[in-house]
Amino acid sequence: MLELTGNKARAIAAARAAGLPVLDSSAPSSDIDELLSAAEDMHFPVFVKAVAGGGGRGMRRVEAIEDLRDAIEIASREAESAFGDPTVFLEEAVIDPRHIEVQILADNAGNVIHLYERDCSLQRRHQKVIEMAPAPNISDELRERLCNDAVNFAKEIGYSCAGTVEFLVNPEGRHVFIEMNPRIQVEHTVTEEVTDVDLVAAQLKIAAGATLPELGLTQDQIRLSGAALQCRITTEDPTDGFRPDTGRITAYRSPGGAGIRLDGGTSVGAEISPHFDSMLVKLTARGRDRATAIVRARRALAEFRIRGVATNIPYLQAVLADPAFVAGEVTTSFIEQRPELLTARGSSDTASKILRYLADVTVNKPHGVRPTKVYAVDKLPAVDLSAPAPEGSKQRLDRLGPPASPRTCARRPRWR
Questions:
Q1: CA separation for the pair 89, 408 (Å, rounded)
Q2: Which of these ranges, 29-33, 176-180, 309-313, 329-333, has the smallest mean pLDDT?
Q3: Label partner for 303 (CA 20 to 30 A): which of 141, 251, 323, 381?
Q4: What mean pLDDT is reported for the chain?
Q5: Peptide bond into 45 cis (omega under 30)
Q6: Which residues of 287-297 are buried (b: 16+ CB within 10 A; e: fewer)?
Q7: How far apart are the C-alpha atoms of 133 and 227, rounded to whole Å?
């Protein structure tokens, strides 16, 4: 099963056999000339895809055939480095699509159900950033077609346990199969929140021999309730091309409250190294509707305090505040079309700034500079420090003597 679904070309052939709509594509090959020949009969733009690819690696979009050779060479090298297989294929590109995937569960007795869809269109360089369930602004008819096709594909290949069937949907509402992920995905939490089904526990029980009916999981019992969205919080710097940041966590405070779920996380003193994925924690927000889920996600992001390394939290806040996102008008090109989101806001980190200021004053300017103005109001009169100081009570006492001092010195208050 892993060999079938893990190879995108084989998965597309299986989808075609199951009657699912698929994109025009070439045969997989590591021969550049063979792929260039196949491209002559295809409509551009096209994608060069690694047959063993995933996570956007080994994948390049090509607008014109004259740029194809370089793209194939780069994708093939990347695929060999990442997956040990340089084989790639060409696939017709869908212009400005939405990326929608359907969660399925299947047992070893041939029973297959779907748990509705997730919208994963918010992507950057083919890496998902925010996922939503259910998908906003799709018709009931399209939802039914997507879910039925996902179930039919799983039945066609004899799938079992949890998996995800992924589709692209063009602006006209036409959907096409692109691949299947035969595993639990990062974004499975949003499906769990809106269906109240523990997907991880369900697949473990299926692997142990249970059937879906024995688990009480039949299609007529699966209902959508509310809406949920997931934000992937990573140790990346959005202002520096999303470069992964490393270092030691000096402060960590996580959010909570109604409708907030956290998967993962860290603690003060943890070391973020360059040898692992940059995702730190998954924030899932749930509400009775999508608007409520977005408000809760905004509040939770604002409550995070992560210091010591850069994070993408300010970027996520900017995306959640974008009017198009709030309206559910999302496609896979949403982020690329809005470069202003990269600098829309930044972390104030007031506490760290105060500490740095105090440290600088303590070490470098312990005595400071005598101020003459505070908040534009004169607090101290101008003084000529080169002139003799005026007489005070001490000089009057010396000149007049003790007997005269009660008459010349200011009376002190008496304290009971």
A1: 103
A2: 29-33
A3: 323
A4: 87
A5: yes
A6: beebebbbebb
A7: 6
Beta strand segments in 195-348, E = 227-234, 236-237, 243-244, 247-248, 251-253, 260-264, 271-272, 279-287, 305-307
Exposed e or buried b per residue across 18-56, where buried means at least 16 C-beta atoms within 10 angstroms of its C-beta: bebebbebbebbeeeeebeebbeebeeebbbbbbbbeee
Phi, psi angle pair for 89, to nearest 5°: -145, 165
Q: Check: CB of residue 7 under 8 Å from CB of residue 52.
A: yes
Name the DSSP class of 26. P
Report how far residue 98's alpha carbon sits from residue 171's, in angstroms, rounded to the nearest whole number: 8
Contact (CB, 8 A) for 17 and 156:
yes
CA separation for the pair 155, 109 (Å, rounded): 11
Nearest by Cα to 177 from 164, 189, 186: 164
pLDDT tens per residue, range 129-160: 999 999 999 999 999 999 999 999 999 999 99
Active site residues: 183
d(CA 185, CA 248): 28
Tell me the C-alpha to C-alpha distance, in Å, between residue 5 and each of 12, 120, 157, 184.
Answer: 9, 20, 9, 14
Closest of 193, 197, 198 to residue 288, by C-alpha: 193
Structure tokens that stand for 409 in this block:
């010195």
Classify burial at 226, counting beta carbons within 10 Å of its beta carbon; exposed 0-12, middle 13-18, buried 19 or more.
middle
Residue 27, both tokens: 């045969």
Query: Per-residue b/e over 352-375, b at no fewer than 16 CB within 10 Å?
Result: eeeeeeeeeeeeeeeeeeeeeeee
Amino acid occupying residue 273: S
In single-letter form, the type of residue at position 311 comes to T
The residue to which tokens 């069937």 are assigned: 165
Model confidence over 91-138: pLDDT tens digits?
888 888 999 999 999 999 999 999 999 999 999 877 899 999 999 999
